[in-house]
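Next comes a single protein record:
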Amino acid sequence: MVDLHHIISDGVSQELLIRDFAALYSGATLPALSLQYKDYSEWLQSERYQSKIAKAKDYWLSTYAEEVEVLQLPYDYARPAVKGHEGGSVHVRLTSELSEQLKALSEAHEATLFMTLLAAYNVLLSKLSHQEDLVVGTPVAGRDHADLEGIMGMFINTLPLRNRVSGKQSFADFLVQVRDITVQSIEHQGYPYEDLLDALQAPRDAARNPLFDVLFSYENFESSSLEIDGLTLSPWDSEGETAKFDLTLTAGEGPEGLELNLSYATGLFTEATARRFLGYLERIIEAITEDAQTPISGIEILSEAEKDQLLKDFNDTASAYALEETVID
Protein backbone atom coordinates (compact mmCIF):
# COMPACT_ATOMS: atom_id res chain seq x y z
CA MET A 1 0.00 0.00 0.00
CA VAL A 2 1.23 3.46 -0.90
CA ASP A 3 -0.22 6.54 0.80
CA LEU A 4 0.59 9.87 -0.88
CA HIS A 5 -0.49 13.31 0.30
CA HIS A 6 -2.09 15.41 -2.42
CA ILE A 7 0.46 18.18 -1.78
CA ILE A 8 3.12 16.09 -3.57
CA SER A 9 1.05 13.94 -5.93
CA ASP A 10 -1.74 14.16 -8.49
CA GLY A 11 -3.54 11.68 -10.75
CA VAL A 12 -0.82 11.70 -13.41
CA SER A 13 1.79 11.08 -10.70
CA GLN A 14 -0.14 8.01 -9.61
CA GLU A 15 -0.04 6.63 -13.14
CA LEU A 16 3.71 7.34 -13.31
CA LEU A 17 4.30 5.54 -10.01
CA ILE A 18 2.43 2.45 -11.19
CA ARG A 19 4.31 2.40 -14.50
CA ASP A 20 7.73 2.89 -12.88
CA PHE A 21 7.06 0.32 -10.15
CA ALA A 22 6.13 -2.31 -12.74
CA ALA A 23 9.26 -1.51 -14.77
CA LEU A 24 11.57 -1.71 -11.74
CA TYR A 25 9.95 -4.92 -10.45
CA SER A 26 10.58 -6.48 -13.85
CA GLY A 27 14.27 -5.51 -13.72
CA ALA A 28 14.14 -2.62 -16.18
CA THR A 29 16.19 0.54 -15.81
CA LEU A 30 14.26 3.78 -15.78
CA PRO A 31 15.44 6.56 -18.12
CA ALA A 32 17.00 9.56 -16.43
CA LEU A 33 14.84 12.65 -16.08
CA SER A 34 16.13 15.89 -17.54
CA LEU A 35 14.18 17.83 -14.90
CA GLN A 36 13.04 17.32 -11.32
CA TYR A 37 10.16 18.94 -9.47
CA LYS A 38 12.62 21.28 -7.74
CA ASP A 39 13.56 22.63 -11.21
CA TYR A 40 9.89 23.27 -11.93
CA SER A 41 9.50 24.95 -8.54
CA GLU A 42 12.46 27.23 -9.28
CA TRP A 43 11.04 28.07 -12.72
CA LEU A 44 7.76 29.12 -11.06
CA GLN A 45 9.66 31.85 -9.25
CA SER A 46 11.32 33.16 -12.43
CA GLU A 47 10.60 36.66 -13.69
CA ARG A 48 9.34 35.33 -17.02
CA TYR A 49 6.80 33.02 -15.38
CA GLN A 50 5.67 35.65 -12.88
CA SER A 51 4.95 37.98 -15.81
CA LYS A 52 2.81 35.26 -17.37
CA ILE A 53 0.98 34.70 -14.09
CA ALA A 54 0.28 38.43 -13.75
CA LYS A 55 -1.59 38.35 -17.08
CA ALA A 56 -3.50 35.25 -15.98
CA LYS A 57 -4.44 36.98 -12.73
CA ASP A 58 -5.81 39.98 -14.65
CA TYR A 59 -7.93 37.62 -16.78
CA TRP A 60 -9.48 35.85 -13.80
CA LEU A 61 -10.08 39.02 -11.81
CA SER A 62 -11.82 40.48 -14.87
CA THR A 63 -13.94 37.32 -15.19
CA TYR A 64 -15.07 37.67 -11.58
CA ALA A 65 -15.37 41.45 -11.46
CA GLU A 66 -19.09 40.94 -10.83
CA GLU A 67 -20.15 38.96 -7.78
CA VAL A 68 -21.13 35.32 -8.36
CA GLU A 69 -24.68 34.27 -7.61
CA VAL A 70 -24.84 31.19 -5.37
CA LEU A 71 -26.22 28.19 -7.26
CA GLN A 72 -29.55 27.02 -5.83
CA LEU A 73 -30.50 23.53 -6.98
CA PRO A 74 -33.72 21.66 -6.06
CA TYR A 75 -32.35 19.82 -3.01
CA ASP A 76 -34.12 16.94 -1.30
CA TYR A 77 -32.70 17.86 2.10
CA ALA A 78 -31.83 21.14 3.80
CA ARG A 79 -28.18 22.07 3.46
CA PRO A 80 -26.35 21.30 6.72
CA ALA A 81 -24.45 24.04 8.55
CA VAL A 82 -21.20 22.15 7.93
CA LYS A 83 -20.63 20.43 4.60
CA GLY A 84 -20.48 16.64 4.73
CA HIS A 85 -18.55 14.42 2.34
CA GLU A 86 -20.75 11.33 2.08
CA GLY A 87 -21.63 10.62 -1.51
CA GLY A 88 -23.16 8.29 -4.04
CA SER A 89 -23.09 8.02 -7.81
CA VAL A 90 -25.27 7.03 -10.75
CA HIS A 91 -24.11 6.05 -14.20
CA VAL A 92 -25.40 5.94 -17.77
CA ARG A 93 -23.85 4.88 -21.08
CA LEU A 94 -24.94 6.77 -24.19
CA THR A 95 -25.65 4.66 -27.25
CA SER A 96 -22.87 4.48 -29.82
CA GLU A 97 -25.17 6.28 -32.30
CA LEU A 98 -25.85 9.16 -29.89
CA SER A 99 -22.15 9.32 -29.00
CA GLU A 100 -21.20 9.65 -32.67
CA GLN A 101 -23.84 12.35 -33.19
CA LEU A 102 -22.40 14.28 -30.25
CA LYS A 103 -18.91 14.02 -31.76
CA ALA A 104 -20.24 15.25 -35.11
CA LEU A 105 -21.94 18.21 -33.38
CA SER A 106 -18.66 19.09 -31.66
CA GLU A 107 -16.65 18.92 -34.88
CA ALA A 108 -19.22 21.04 -36.74
CA HIS A 109 -18.66 23.87 -34.22
CA GLU A 110 -14.88 23.36 -33.86
CA ALA A 111 -15.37 22.24 -30.28
CA THR A 112 -14.14 19.28 -28.28
CA LEU A 113 -16.41 16.74 -26.60
CA PHE A 114 -15.38 18.32 -23.31
CA MET A 115 -16.77 21.67 -24.44
CA THR A 116 -20.02 20.22 -25.81
CA LEU A 117 -20.73 18.17 -22.70
CA LEU A 118 -19.83 21.15 -20.50
CA ALA A 119 -22.33 23.27 -22.44
CA ALA A 120 -25.03 20.60 -22.03
CA TYR A 121 -24.22 20.38 -18.29
CA ASN A 122 -24.63 24.17 -17.99
CA VAL A 123 -28.01 23.94 -19.70
CA LEU A 124 -29.07 21.27 -17.21
CA LEU A 125 -27.93 23.33 -14.21
CA SER A 126 -29.66 26.43 -15.59
CA LYS A 127 -32.96 24.60 -16.00
CA LEU A 128 -32.72 23.03 -12.54
CA SER A 129 -31.83 26.29 -10.80
CA HIS A 130 -33.63 28.83 -13.05
CA GLN A 131 -30.37 30.80 -13.03
CA GLU A 132 -28.32 32.10 -15.96
CA ASP A 133 -24.95 33.02 -14.39
CA LEU A 134 -23.23 29.70 -13.64
CA VAL A 135 -19.79 28.62 -12.46
CA VAL A 136 -18.62 25.03 -13.00
CA GLY A 137 -15.24 23.88 -11.74
CA THR A 138 -13.01 21.63 -13.81
CA PRO A 139 -9.58 20.13 -13.07
CA VAL A 140 -6.64 20.65 -15.44
CA ALA A 141 -3.43 18.62 -15.44
CA GLY A 142 -1.22 21.73 -15.35
CA ARG A 143 1.58 19.98 -17.27
CA ASP A 144 1.68 22.44 -20.16
CA HIS A 145 5.24 21.56 -21.19
CA ALA A 146 6.48 18.23 -22.58
CA ASP A 147 9.35 18.08 -20.07
CA LEU A 148 6.84 17.94 -17.20
CA GLU A 149 5.01 14.83 -18.39
CA GLY A 150 7.24 12.34 -16.60
CA ILE A 151 7.77 14.17 -13.30
CA MET A 152 6.16 13.16 -10.01
CA GLY A 153 4.56 16.09 -8.22
CA MET A 154 1.49 18.24 -7.73
CA PHE A 155 0.69 20.11 -10.94
CA ILE A 156 -3.11 19.96 -11.08
CA ASN A 157 -5.18 23.14 -10.86
CA THR A 158 -8.91 23.83 -10.83
CA LEU A 159 -10.50 26.27 -13.27
CA PRO A 160 -13.78 27.96 -12.28
CA LEU A 161 -15.44 28.25 -15.70
CA ARG A 162 -18.09 30.98 -15.73
CA ASN A 163 -20.79 30.96 -18.42
CA ARG A 164 -24.09 32.77 -18.88
CA VAL A 165 -26.98 30.69 -20.22
CA SER A 166 -29.71 32.60 -22.04
CA GLY A 167 -32.93 30.82 -22.95
CA LYS A 168 -33.17 32.90 -26.13
CA GLN A 169 -29.84 31.54 -27.39
CA SER A 170 -29.67 28.51 -29.62
CA PHE A 171 -27.56 25.70 -28.22
CA ALA A 172 -25.17 26.12 -31.16
CA ASP A 173 -24.52 29.77 -30.22
CA PHE A 174 -24.09 28.85 -26.57
CA LEU A 175 -21.62 26.11 -27.51
CA VAL A 176 -19.48 28.68 -29.37
CA GLN A 177 -19.54 30.87 -26.24
CA VAL A 178 -18.51 27.95 -24.01
CA ARG A 179 -15.78 26.99 -26.50
CA ASP A 180 -14.25 30.45 -26.53
CA ILE A 181 -14.39 30.89 -22.74
CA THR A 182 -12.87 27.43 -22.21
CA VAL A 183 -9.98 28.18 -24.58
CA GLN A 184 -9.27 31.50 -22.85
CA SER A 185 -9.47 29.89 -19.40
CA ILE A 186 -7.03 27.13 -20.36
CA GLU A 187 -4.64 29.71 -21.77
CA HIS A 188 -4.65 31.35 -18.32
CA GLN A 189 -4.69 28.11 -16.30
CA GLY A 190 -1.40 28.86 -14.52
CA TYR A 191 -2.97 31.16 -11.93
CA PRO A 192 -3.72 28.97 -8.89
CA TYR A 193 -7.35 28.63 -7.83
CA GLU A 194 -6.40 29.24 -4.18
CA ASP A 195 -4.67 32.52 -5.11
CA LEU A 196 -7.78 33.61 -7.01
CA LEU A 197 -9.92 33.04 -3.92
CA ASP A 198 -7.53 35.13 -1.85
CA ALA A 199 -7.44 37.92 -4.45
CA LEU A 200 -11.25 37.98 -4.65
CA GLN A 201 -11.53 37.77 -0.87
CA ALA A 202 -14.20 35.14 -1.54
CA PRO A 203 -16.46 34.64 1.50
CA ARG A 204 -15.91 31.30 3.21
CA ASP A 205 -18.89 29.18 4.21
CA ALA A 206 -18.53 25.87 6.06
CA ALA A 207 -21.58 24.59 4.17
CA ARG A 208 -20.31 25.35 0.64
CA ASN A 209 -17.25 25.51 -1.57
CA PRO A 210 -16.06 28.97 -2.64
CA LEU A 211 -17.13 30.09 -6.17
CA PHE A 212 -18.74 26.81 -7.24
CA ASP A 213 -20.51 23.73 -5.87
CA VAL A 214 -20.58 21.66 -9.06
CA LEU A 215 -17.72 20.10 -11.02
CA PHE A 216 -17.23 18.66 -14.49
CA SER A 217 -14.39 16.37 -15.51
CA TYR A 218 -13.68 14.68 -18.84
CA GLU A 219 -11.30 11.79 -18.48
CA ASN A 220 -10.35 8.32 -19.64
CA PHE A 221 -12.15 5.72 -17.54
CA GLU A 222 -9.36 3.21 -18.16
CA SER A 223 -6.62 3.66 -15.55
CA SER A 224 -3.21 2.07 -15.88
CA SER A 225 -3.16 -1.63 -15.11
CA LEU A 226 -0.23 -3.10 -13.22
CA GLU A 227 1.20 -5.97 -15.26
CA ILE A 228 4.17 -7.86 -13.84
CA ASP A 229 5.54 -11.20 -15.06
CA GLY A 230 4.89 -14.02 -12.62
CA LEU A 231 2.18 -12.19 -10.67
CA THR A 232 -1.60 -12.20 -10.99
CA LEU A 233 -3.01 -8.82 -10.00
CA SER A 234 -6.56 -7.62 -9.44
CA PRO A 235 -8.00 -4.22 -8.51
CA TRP A 236 -9.21 -3.44 -5.02
CA ASP A 237 -12.35 -1.31 -4.90
CA SER A 238 -12.47 1.13 -2.02
CA GLU A 239 -15.63 0.95 0.06
CA GLY A 240 -17.85 3.99 0.36
CA GLU A 241 -17.95 7.10 -1.80
CA THR A 242 -17.12 10.69 -1.03
CA ALA A 243 -18.59 13.80 -2.61
CA LYS A 244 -16.40 16.90 -2.59
CA PHE A 245 -19.15 18.89 -4.34
CA ASP A 246 -22.94 18.94 -4.55
CA LEU A 247 -22.76 17.38 -8.02
CA THR A 248 -19.81 16.12 -10.06
CA LEU A 249 -20.31 15.02 -13.65
CA THR A 250 -17.54 12.81 -15.01
CA ALA A 251 -17.52 11.87 -18.70
CA GLY A 252 -15.27 9.72 -20.82
CA GLU A 253 -15.20 7.44 -23.83
CA GLY A 254 -15.92 3.78 -23.18
CA PRO A 255 -15.68 0.88 -25.65
CA GLU A 256 -19.40 1.07 -26.48
CA GLY A 257 -20.03 4.82 -26.25
CA LEU A 258 -19.69 7.82 -23.99
CA GLU A 259 -19.93 7.09 -20.27
CA LEU A 260 -21.51 9.62 -17.90
CA ASN A 261 -21.16 9.34 -14.14
CA LEU A 262 -22.92 11.73 -11.77
CA SER A 263 -21.56 11.86 -8.23
CA TYR A 264 -23.84 13.53 -5.68
CA ALA A 265 -23.80 14.53 -2.02
CA THR A 266 -26.13 12.16 -0.19
CA GLY A 267 -26.73 14.85 2.43
CA LEU A 268 -28.49 16.93 -0.25
CA PHE A 269 -29.93 14.52 -2.83
CA THR A 270 -31.52 11.08 -2.96
CA GLU A 271 -30.37 8.50 -5.49
CA ALA A 272 -33.71 8.82 -7.30
CA THR A 273 -33.13 12.56 -7.78
CA ALA A 274 -29.60 12.00 -9.08
CA ARG A 275 -30.92 9.44 -11.58
CA ARG A 276 -33.59 11.92 -12.65
CA PHE A 277 -30.94 14.64 -13.20
CA LEU A 278 -28.87 12.25 -15.32
CA GLY A 279 -31.98 11.40 -17.33
CA TYR A 280 -32.56 15.11 -17.92
CA LEU A 281 -29.00 15.49 -19.20
CA GLU A 282 -29.52 12.59 -21.59
CA ARG A 283 -32.66 14.28 -22.98
CA ILE A 284 -30.72 17.52 -23.45
CA ILE A 285 -28.05 15.63 -25.41
CA GLU A 286 -30.73 13.98 -27.56
CA ALA A 287 -32.35 17.38 -28.25
CA ILE A 288 -29.13 19.20 -29.21
CA THR A 289 -27.93 16.40 -31.49
CA GLU A 290 -31.30 16.41 -33.23
CA ASP A 291 -31.28 20.20 -33.75
CA ALA A 292 -28.50 22.39 -32.34
CA GLN A 293 -30.35 25.53 -33.48
CA THR A 294 -33.15 24.90 -30.98
CA PRO A 295 -33.45 27.77 -28.47
CA ILE A 296 -32.30 26.62 -25.04
CA SER A 297 -35.69 27.61 -23.61
CA GLY A 298 -37.28 25.14 -26.03
CA ILE A 299 -35.27 22.15 -24.81
CA GLU A 300 -37.58 20.01 -22.67
CA ILE A 301 -36.10 17.87 -19.92
CA LEU A 302 -39.25 16.41 -18.34
CA SER A 303 -40.56 12.97 -19.28
CA GLU A 304 -44.18 12.54 -20.33
CA ALA A 305 -44.97 11.00 -16.93
CA GLU A 306 -43.51 14.05 -15.13
CA LYS A 307 -45.48 16.42 -17.39
CA ASP A 308 -48.72 14.58 -16.57
CA GLN A 309 -47.89 14.73 -12.87
CA LEU A 310 -47.28 18.49 -12.99
CA LEU A 311 -50.16 19.42 -15.28
CA LYS A 312 -52.81 16.93 -14.16
CA ASP A 313 -52.07 15.29 -10.81
CA PHE A 314 -50.77 18.38 -9.00
CA ASN A 315 -53.53 20.54 -10.52
CA ASP A 316 -56.33 18.17 -9.56
CA THR A 317 -57.37 20.40 -6.66
CA ALA A 318 -61.14 20.54 -7.13
CA SER A 319 -63.04 20.29 -3.84
CA ALA A 320 -66.75 20.12 -2.99
CA TYR A 321 -67.94 23.01 -0.79
CA ALA A 322 -71.35 23.46 0.78
CA LEU A 323 -73.15 25.95 -1.49
CA GLU A 324 -75.43 27.20 1.26
CA GLU A 325 -72.47 28.50 3.32
CA THR A 326 -70.32 31.57 2.77
CA VAL A 327 -66.57 31.45 1.98
CA ILE A 328 -65.80 32.57 5.54
CA ASP A 329 -67.98 29.84 7.01
The first helix runs from residue 11 to 25. The first strand starts at residue 86 and ends at 93. The CA atoms of residues 247 and 264 lie 5 Å apart.
